[in-house]
Design brief:
Structural class: alpha/beta
Strand order of the largest sheet: 8-7-6-9-10-11
Number of domains: 2
Distance between the termini: 49 Å
CATH class of the largest domain: Alpha Beta
Number of helices: 14
Mean pLDDT: 97
C-alpha cells in the first residue's frame, strides 16, 4: 500500500496551504494512506481533515529521534518534506523511505529584498510550490484551482455559536478583525484599526476581534463595543468564528489563510512582504491592499522596525480604503 508522509511543522498559514496538495493526493490516489507530521500546536488545523489518515504530532521537548521511531512504525513509502529545514532534513535520515522536497526560492527572495531584482517571474503561491515535492515523487497531481481547506469539528462550531449568542451577535452580520502581527512592520496602525471598526459599525456590522493571547491587548483597544475573542479561542474555534463572519480584515498572518480555508471573504493588508513570496490569499474571495513602493519588500517575514523609519507601506493604506474594499467584496 502507498503510504505518504507529509511533513510541515508550522506555522498556521504554511500548514493550511498544504491542504490543496492533500486534497489532490486523495483524489488521485484514493487507496493511499496520507499521514501528516506537524507541531502539536498546529495539529487542530489538519486533525479533522478527511483526506488524512492520521496526524503525528511533535510535542514540545520531544526529540526528533522519538518522533522518527513513531514514524518508522507507520512504514511510509514516500515522504514529502514540505518544510525544508535542517530538522526536516534530519528526519529524512531517520525515517527510511523515498523523500522529496520543494524549492523555497531563497536566492530569488534574497535578490528581491536586497537588490529589488525580481528573478521569480510570475508569482506562484506556496500552495502550488508544495506540488513540486509530489511531482518529484511521480505522484501525478496538479492544483485543482480551489482554495485551502480548514475542516471544523462540530464542537468548535457549537462553542462559537454559544459565544456569539451571549454577545448578541448570533444571526447578526459581523466583521472579524485581526489586528495582531508577529512583527511590528506587518502591523497596521492601531488608530487605523479603531477607525475601521467605527466605520464598519456605522454600516451595520458587529465587530469581533480575533487572534492569539499575544493579540488580546491590542484587540481590546479597538473600541468598547468590539467583542474581543483574541486569546479566548483555540485554532478550531477561531476557524468556526471566521466561518460565521461576513468578512475578515487581516494583515499578512495565518488568520488570513484560516478564513480562506473556511470560505470567508478576506481583505488582506500587505506591507513589507509581496506576492512573489507566495503567501497572498490563495484562490479564495479576497482583496489585497498594498502600496506600490520602491522599498518593498524589505523583509521576508516582517521585522521589528521599518528600515527607512516611515512605514509608509501600511500607514498609507487608509481605513476608508479598507472599508470601501469590504463593501465591494461583500456586495
Amino acid at each position: 500500500m502507498l503510504r505518504v508522509l507529509c511533513v510541515r511543522f508550522s506555522s498556521i498559514g504554511d500548514v493550511l496551504l498544504t491542504t490543496p496538495l492533500l486534497r489532490a493526493l486523495r483524489h488521485r490516489h484514493p487507496d493511499a494512506e496520507l499521514y501528516f507530521l506537524t507541531k502539536q500546536a498546529m495539529a487542530p488545523l489538519v486533525a479533522d481533515n478527511p483526506h488524512v489518515a492520521g496526524v503525528v504530532t511533535l510535542v514540545p521537548g520531544q526529540s526528533l529521534t522519538d518522533v522518527a521511531r513513531r514514524l518508522r512504525r507507520l512504514g511510509p513509502t514516500l515522504g514529502l518534506d514540505l518544510h525544508g529545514s535542517l530538522r526536516s532534513r534530519a528526519l529524512r535520515l531517520l525515517v527510511p523511505c523515498s523523500w522529496t522536497g520543494y524549492s523555497k526560492r531563497k536566492i530569488a527572495r534574497t535578490a528581491l529584498i536586497a537588490a529589488k531584482i525580481n528573478i521569480y517571474g510570475e508569482p506562484v503561491s506556496v500552495a502550488e510550490r508544495y506540488f513540486e515535492a509530489a511531482r518529484g515523487a511521480a505522484l501525478d497531481v496538479s492544483p485543482d484551482g480551489r482554495p485551502p481547506e480548514f475542516f471544523l469539528a462540530p464542537r468548535a462550531r457549537q462553542h462559537v455559536d454559544r459565544w456569539l449568542e451571549q454577545r448578541r451577535l448570533s444571526g447578526r452580520p459581523f466583521a472579524a478583525l485581526a489586528p495582531g502581527a508577529a512583527h511590528a512592520t506587518k502591523q497596521w496602525p492601531l488608530a487605523h484599526w479603531q477607525r475601521l471598526a467605527r466605520q464598519l459599525e456605522e454600516r451595520g456590522y458587529g465587530i469581533v476581534a480575533i487572534g492569539g493571547p499575544d493579540d488580546r491587548a491590542v484587540a481590546g483597544k479597538l473600541g468598547a463595543s468590539v467583542a474581543n475573542a483574541a486569546g479566548e479561542f483555540g485554532l478550531q474555534e477561531t476557524g468556526a468564528c471566521l466561518a460565521r463572519a461576513r468578512v475578515l480584515v487581516s494583515g499578512d498572518t495565518g488568520v488570513m489563510h484560516m478564513a480562506t480555508g473556511v470560505g470567508t471573504r478576506v481583505v488582506a493588508l500587505f506591507g513589507p512582504t509581496v506576492a512573489q513570496f507566495g503567501f497572498f490569499p490563495y484562490r479564495g474571495a479576497a482583496v489585497v491592499m498594498e502600496r506600490d513602493l520602491d522599498c518593498r519588500p524589505c523583509s521576508a517575514m516582517g521585522s521589528a522596525r521599518c528600515p527607512l523609519g516611515h512605514h509608509h507601506c501600511l500607514t498609507e493604506i487608509l481605513p476608508e480604503q479598507v472599508t470601501a474594499a469590504v463593501e465591494r467584496l461583500v456586495a
